[in-house]
Design a protein that fits this description.
It is a single chain. With 147 residues, this protein is of the alpha/beta class. The protein has helices at residues 16-29, 58-82, 97-108, 122-127, 131-138, and strands spanning 7-12, 34-41, 88-94, 112-116, 143-146. The chain has a five-stranded parallel β-sheet, sandwiched between helices. Strand 1 (7-12), helix 1 and strand 2 form a beta-alpha-beta unit. Helix 3 runs parallel beside helix 5 (131-138). The longest helix has 25 residues, at 58-82. The radius of gyration is 17 Å and the shape is globular.
Length: 147
């Protein structure tokens, strides 16, 4: 990859809006840029006991959960990459999605971030943080929000 080549970061999750973002990115930017697709796994907010049944230490269960979340995010990114007509690099992370997308954009030197917009109810917007808004507010490069 050349230093001055345009790099398109497409952040995806398991929704139709993400697949729309992949299609729109390709329609707008074509085959010449380098594409990086990222999916961020999210660990569920759960209170864990000190040990599971059978005396297994909790860190083993958490490790298995993190592996499962990572595998799911990787499958989502790979599915999105199949929608492109060119090869794409895939990067998967686990954690707060907005911050992870912005960090990956910074680290990769992304020229633009492409994300899908979800139609959410007023209640969902009140009680669930918006990854898209976080990315728009904190991204190190322009952000294209696909609706």
């Amino acid at each position: 990859m050349s230093e001055n080549k345009t790099k398109i970061l497409i952040a995806v999750d398991d929704t139709d809006e993400s697949m729309d973002a992949v299609s729109v990115a390709y329609d707008l930017f074509g085959a010449s840029p380098d594409y990086l697709i990222t999916s961020i796994g999210r660990m569920p907010a759960t209170v864990y006991p000190m040990a599971q049944g059978g005396g297994r230490p909790i860190y083993v269960a958490l490790g298995e959960l993190a592996d499962s979340v990572t595998a799911s995010a990787a499958a989502t990114a790979e599915e999105a990459a199949e929608h492109l007509e060119v090869d794409a690099t895939i990067e998967v992370d686990v954690g707060p999605a907005g911050a992870a997308v912005c960090r990956i954009a910074e680290d990769s030197g992304a020229s633009v971030i492409v994300i899908g917009s979800h139609d959410r109810s007023i209640w969902a917007r009140l009680f669930e943080p918006s990854v898209g808004k976080y990315v728009v507010d904190h991204a190190p490069c322009p952000v294209l929000v696909v609706r």
